[in-house]
Amino acid sequence: MSTTRIEPVETLDEPTFTSGQPLDYVPGILLLIAVGLLGKYAQIWWNALAKHEHWRVPDIEYVLWAIVIGLVITNTIGLHRIFRPGVQTYEFWLKAGIVVLGARFVLGDIAKLGALSLLQILVDMAVAGTVIIVAARAFGLSGKLGSLLAIGTSICGVSAIVAAKGAIRARNSEVSYAIAAILALGAVALFVLPPLGHAIGLTDREFGLWAGLAVDNTAETTATGYLFSDHAGKIAVLVKSTRNALIGFVVLGFALYWAARGQADEIAPGAKAKAAFIWQKFPKFVLGFLAVSAIATAGWLTKGQTANLANVSKWAFLLTFAGVGLNTDIRQIARTGWRPLLVAVIGLTVVASVSLGIVLLTSRVFHWGVGA
Amino acid sequence: MGDGDTAQRGWHERVGSVSMDWWATLVAGVITALAVADALPKIPW
């Protein structure tokens, strides 16, 4: 049994760019821009057509148009490999958009909402994680696949699974299964949660909290929130960032569990090594988000520049939504097999129900943070 | 392999060793700095 030391090579656990040649990214980024713009204008054209023809149809948001157009391209004509490096930068745009979005929050609100959502996240994680591990065992999945699904569903989707991969020494097939299941669930949540939220009569704030707690992958969380409303999108991003910040602690917990069973590398002893492990897994863009928010709180931004930054963040998210659609290959998800998917569906249902219960309990019964 | 190739590969490796999180923070930081200096042009939506 070996002991894990924090080596520079471990930074490979974090998402990185797939090519060393800047020009390789150009076609894919242009495709993201084209799909994003098409999505934005599709909303305008759709509304104009409906008005002209006197149709009574729902307003379909640019978020949904961009995702659906991307989905159609990938699942019909397919995505040529020349576009792949650029299309996979959608996580970069997401993170840059989140950092810039910090300008729309003052630190006091982040502390209030962060503390409230932290409590909700901890309850949600404990319940959902337990249910998924039990369901995975009942359906005969390996313990490590169960752990990966629990980490992915309760914390942070794909990033958390990738972060846990090395730490719990999971097999590549287990990682692929878990990632495909989480992505499939993200797509389901994206289409199901916003209409459900409207049907239940949730406020923007309640829906933002719910999306931030229930949807696994940050890109899908952002899209789900913005599909409901701009304000819900902002809240969803903040709650999800709080969830993301916990990656290191959860992965450390699972790593210690599997190491105690001799099935993963041991973490070097001592608080310093554990702190280094948590820092290594910590999503660094959250620090950028807080720094930009501190700048806004200090009053260093004019009203016009704050609006400008909000628009930069919307453009960055538009590229992310196009990337979500372009990266969702339904055939690949179908190849995963029904058992991991079923466990993940149980996970989503449990997480969505538990988190909705927590949101309604805290906002409508306890009236916590209603004014925040 | 020439010195130019080695230098270019070294640069690519250095750039590649910076995680996507830090790149996103850096790019967003530059945009925010421009906004603080009131030098960010009007971004329409």
Q: Overall mean pLDDT score of chain A?
A: 82
Rg of chain B over CA atoms, rounded to whole Å, is 16 Å
Per CATH, the architecture of chain A is Up-down Bundle
Counted beta strands of chain A: 2
Pair with the biggest interface: A-B, 38 and 25 residues
- Backbone CA Rg of chain A: 20 Å
Number of helices of chain A: 16
Overall 3D form of chain A: globular
Number of helices of chain B: 2
Order of helices and strands of chain B: HH
CATH class of chain A: Mainly Alpha
Number of domains of chain B: 1
Instruction: Supply the number of structural domains of chain A.
Output: 1
Oligomeric state of the chains present here: heterodimer
Count of distinct strands of chain B: 0
Low-confidence stretches of chain B: none
How does the helix and strand content of chain B classify structurally? Answer: mainly alpha
Task: Give the CA-CA distance, first to last residue of chain A.
Answer: 49 Å
- Note the main sheet of chain A: 2 strands, parallel
Helix content of chain A: over 70%
What does this structure look like?
The complex is a heterodimer of chains A (372) and B (45). Chain A is mainly α and 372 residues long. Chain A has one domain: Up-down Bundle (Na+/H+ antiporter like fold), CATH 1.20.1530. Helix content of chain A is 74%, strand content 1%. Chain A contains 16 helices and 2 strands. In chain A, strands 1-2 form a two-stranded parallel ribbon. In chain A, α5 packs across α10, α6 crosses α7 and α7 (172-200) packs parallel to α9 (218-228). The radius of gyration of chain A is 20 Å and the shape is globular. Mean pLDDT of chain A is 82; it is low at 1-14. By secondary structure, chain B is mainly alpha-helical. Chain B has one domain (3-36). In chain B, 22% of the residues are buried. The longest helix of chain B is centred in the middle third of the chain and has 17 residues, at 20-36. Chain B has helices spanning 3-17, 20-36. Chain B is built from 2 helices and no strands. Helix content of chain B is 71%, strand content 0%. The interface between A and B is medium-sized, with 38 and 25 residues.
